[in-house]
Amino acid sequence: MPSDINIVRKAGRAVGRVQRVGFRRFVQAEARARGVTGWVKNMKDSSVTMELQGELPIVEELIDRIKKGRGRINVTSLELSDLPVVEGEKGFGIKR
Questions:
Q1: Which CATH number does the domain housing residue 27 bear?
Q2: 26 within a domain of the structure (yes/no)
Q3: Is 50 helix (H, G, I), strand (E, B) or coil?
Q4: Whether the predicted pLDDT of 58 surpasses 70
Q5: Is 60 contained in some domain?
Q6: Residue 67 · residue 23 · CB < 8 Å
């Protein structure tokens, strides 16, 4: 990737009505539409964790979209932290 592009990776933990409402598929579709790589996973505590990687403005746009949700999805909190970039990652998956 060219050095003038700021690639970031964010860890996220979403809380609210985020399980049993299609949230993981929603995040995957929104990420793929933007060319963001990473994954999303349901957790036993009813939260959903994710890792998002891509160009900074695009990842920020995706984060805003995730916060807004859609349909029955209601994100009440989205905690974010920075992670090291994963070189060569392709695609965006749903972890089980």
A1: 3.30.70.100
A2: yes
A3: strand
A4: yes
A5: yes
A6: no
